[in-house]
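Need a sequence for this fold. Nothing fancy.
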C-alpha cells in the first residue's frame, strides 16, 4: 500500500499544482488585458481626428465591447470607436452576432449589441427588440439597459409595446421607461386604453411616477374601471395631482367593494382639505378591513384636534 499511496498523493499534489498554475496564468492574462485596456482608453481620450480611427481599427470586437459598455470613455469618443469598428462589412457581421445567427453565446450577443448602440446604428432598435422579446432573461435585461442608454422616443415606444405585449417582466420594463428622460408621457395612452387590466394598471402607475397631468381626465374615468387593481392605481394618481375638484371622486371610493381600493382612496384623500373628510375618516376607523382602518387612523392622527396632548406638570 505504501508505493500506491505515495503515487496517489503525488498525483493529487501535481493536480493541485496544475490548477494553481492555471489560475495564476489566467490572472496574469486578465491583469495584462486590464492594463492594456486602460492604456487604450487613455490614448483614445487624447487622440486627434484620424488617429482615433486608426487605434479603433486595430481593436477586436471584445475590446470595443468592453470600451463602450462602461462609463470611463466619454460618449462621443465611444460612438466614434464603435462606428470605426462597424465600417465596411463589419456591421453586417456584428448585427448577425447580436441577433444570435452566428453565435449562441449570450455575452457575445450582448457585446455586439452594445457596439451597435454605442455607434447609434440604425439596426440597434431592431436588435434590442429581438433581445427583449427573447426567452432569455440575461438578453432581455441587457436590452432594457441599452434602451435606457439610447434614451430616445423610438426606444420609449419600443418599451411601451413590450410592456403591452408582456414579453418580459412588466415591472422591469416599466422601470426602464421611468428611467428615461426623453419626452414620452404622451405614449401612455397605448397602455391606458388597453383591453388588459394589468396593462391599464401599469399605464396608471407610470402616469403617477411621471406626474402626467395630461392624463388626469383618463384617471377620473379609470376610477370606475371594472378591475380593482386599476381603480387603486387611478385613485393614487388623482391624489398625487391634488385637484380639489376631485375630492368627491376620491370620497366615493371610500365605499368601493375592494378593501385595497378603499385604503388607497383614504391615503389619496390626504392631498385634499374638504371639511367632510375628517368625518369620513372617523367612519372608516370601523371598516371591516384592517388595512382601511389603519389608513383612516393614520390620517386622523395627523389632525391637531385628534392628537394626544400631555398636560404640563404643575409648577
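Here you go.
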Amino acid at each position: 500500500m505504501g508505493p500506491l499511496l505515495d503515487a496517489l498523493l503525488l498525483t493529487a499534489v501535481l493536480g493541485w499544482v496544475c490548477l494553481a498554475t492555471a489560475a495564476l496564468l489566467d490572472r496574469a492574462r486578465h491583469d495584462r488585458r486590464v492594463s492594456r485596456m486602460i492604456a487604450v482608453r487613455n490614448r483614445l481620450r487624447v487622440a486627434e481626428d484620424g488617429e482615433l480611427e486608426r487605434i479603433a481599427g486595430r481593436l477586436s470586437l471584445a475590446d470595443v465591447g468592453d470600451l463602450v459598455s462602461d462609463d470611463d470613455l466619454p460618449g462621443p469618443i465611444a460612438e466614434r470607436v464603435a462606428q470605426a469598428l462597424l465600417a465596411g462589412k463589419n456591421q453586417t457581421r456584428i448585427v448577425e452576432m447580436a441577433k444570435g445567427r452566428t453565435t449562441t453565446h449570450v455575452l457575445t450577443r450582448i457585446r455586439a449589441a452594445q457596439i451597435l448602440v454605442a455607434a447609434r446604428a440604425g439596426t440597434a432598435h431592431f436588435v434590442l427588440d429581438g433581445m427583449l422579446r427573447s426567452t432569455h432573461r440575461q438578453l432581455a435585461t441587457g436590452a432594457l439597459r441599452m434602451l435606457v442608454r439610447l434614451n430616445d422616443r423610438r426606444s420609449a415606444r419600443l418599451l411601451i409595446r413590450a410592456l403591452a405585449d408582456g414579453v418580459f417582466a412588466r415591472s422591469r420594463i416599466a422601470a426602464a421607461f421611468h428611467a428615461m428622460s426623453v419626452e414620452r408621457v404622451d405614449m401612455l395612452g397605448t397602455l391606458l386604453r388597453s383591453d388588459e387590466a394589468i396593462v391599464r394598471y401599469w399605464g396608471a402607475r407610470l402616469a403617477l411616477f411621471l406626474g402626467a397631468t395630461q392624463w388626469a381626465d383618463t384617471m377620473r374615468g379609470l376610477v370606475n374601471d371594472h378591475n380593482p387593481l386599476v381603480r387603486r392605481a387611478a385613485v393614487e394618481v388623482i391624489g398625487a395631482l391634488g385637484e380639489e375638484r376631485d375630492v368627491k371622486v376620491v370620497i366615493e371610493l371610500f365605499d368601493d367593494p375592494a378593501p385595497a381600493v378603499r385604503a388607497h382612496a383614504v391615503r389619496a384623500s390626504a392631498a385634499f382639505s374638504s371639511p367632510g373628510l375628517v368625518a369620513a375618516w372617523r367612519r372608516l376607523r370601523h371598516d371591516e378591513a384592517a388595512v382601511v382602518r389603519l389608513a383612516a387612523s393614520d390620517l386622523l392622527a395627523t389632525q391637531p384636534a385628534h392628537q394626544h396632548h400631555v398636560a404640563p406638570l404643575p409648577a
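For context: Residues 306-315 have pLDDT under 50 and may be disordered.
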